[in-house]
Amino acid sequence: MEQLKEKAYAKINLSLDVVKRRDDGYHEVKMIMQTIGIYDEITIEKCEKGIYVTVSMGEDFKGESLSGDENNLVYKAAKLIMDSYGMKEGVKIHLEKRIPMAAGMAGGSTDAAAVFRGMNQLFALNMDAEQMKKMAVKIGADVPYCIEGGTMLSEGIGEILTPLKQAPDFKLLIAKPDISVSTKYVYENLDLQAVKKHPDVDGMVFAIENGDRDGILKRMENVLENVTLNQYPVIREIKTWMMENGAQNALMSGSGPTVFGIYKDQKSAEEAARLLRDKKLAKQIFTTTIAGYGKESAKADRKEVRDE
Question: Which residue ranges make up each domain of the chain?
Fold first, then answer.
């Protein structure tokens, strides 16, 4: 085998709590990570030597750019693997970007994870998932989760993962406004002493394990909204709009600015997407569903609505 392709699925957070700030500056979290059906595509090919990363981006990314240099997590993942295994062969990697960038959807992390999975297979490195995750955390806290995806409880700085029963087949509307949010800024400005109510992550776990759709919906919370909703009013506006236009609940994913709404069926989600496009509140809008690697649900429909 000289070449292979990997799908790198995006994620949302069904619940996100920050437990404490550690002395080393990192924050300990407790959150529910969930793969969704939007994905980037990674093509990995052997070459004589070196690391070469190219990127293609669609019309969705007008005004944005992504370099394939050593700052790209795809490049960092390939280099870490090659250095760790003393590999002499080189690799060419092409990234077809679809997941919004700086969006709270682990776009860079899932691309890096796809490189781990793909190079492991292409170069017959025989790493199991745990070995890949142990190495992947050096690239970023979300990368170990993205190695496997699905529905997981994530703790520590994101590296302590507990697989859960897959969440129900929710129909989702995803909206990313035309702003960038610094994850570092959000965490640094989160005042845990001032947080009056923390997400019920344990209750969310129980609801997921019991297939309790309503229990999941009512426990959707993200403590980071305490920072972002005031700092970036458009996030609150999108979230409120979804709730007023058919969403059973809506939440910001990660540190933002992406907002997702859960709808009762695909038709409702698509109609809301059409209306949201007319409002011009978001740059990138998708309808999709829950996805899990290796499962039929991973073939979730992806439909995008672009601003005219």
Answer: 3-163, 171-306
